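In response to the reviewer comment on reproducibility (Comment 2.3), we provide here a single inverse folding case reported in full, input and output, so that an independent group could reproduce the run without further information from us. The structure tokens appear first.
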């Protein structure tokens, strides 16, 4: 059953009203280490306030926040293509398949409107992997890290 949630793109002047929720969503979705949070959020706030990043919120009819997504329009310099980069998607509750398709359509519309050729994102979250498969995304790479320690 599709819920009566609405997706709004925040204007830069609205970011401060949602800043605490944005920070919470980013910490949860991006799993940001405490030591990296200051620089992460400084860069993100600058990007959101200068419209280099976009923030979308999901609100219900009572204006209760149910989810947050942050996107950026980026250039893949190797392939010389413009892409929508989904930096984070965080939901305060479980998103069903119909909602997943609805929210992905909004990303598709953004990509088309901005003349992008792809929507790209990465995640360690298996629920996001499921959602990606549901809407027809294909896996293009995997990232690996070897920490040397001491830093």
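Designed residues, in position order:
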């Amino acid at each position: 059953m599709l819920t009566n949630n609405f997706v709004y793109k925040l204007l830069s002047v609205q970011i401060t009203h949602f800043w605490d929720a944005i920070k919470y969503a980013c910490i949860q979705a991006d799993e940001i280490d405490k030591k990296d949070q200051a620089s992460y959020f400084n860069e993100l706030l600058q990007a959101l306030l200068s419209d280099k990043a976009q923030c979308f919120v999901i609100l219900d009819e009572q204006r209760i926040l149910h989810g947050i997504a942050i996107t950026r329009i980026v250039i893949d310099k190797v392939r010389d293509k413009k892409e929508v980069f989904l930096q984070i998607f965080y939901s305060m509750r479980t998103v069903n398949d119909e909602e997943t398709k609805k929210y992905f359509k909004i990303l598709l519309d953004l990509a088309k409107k901005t003349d992008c050729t792809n929507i790209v994102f990465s995640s360690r979250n298996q629920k996001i992997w499921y959602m990606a498969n549901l809407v027809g995304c294909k896996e293009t790479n995997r990232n690996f890290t070897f920490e040397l320690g001491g830093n």
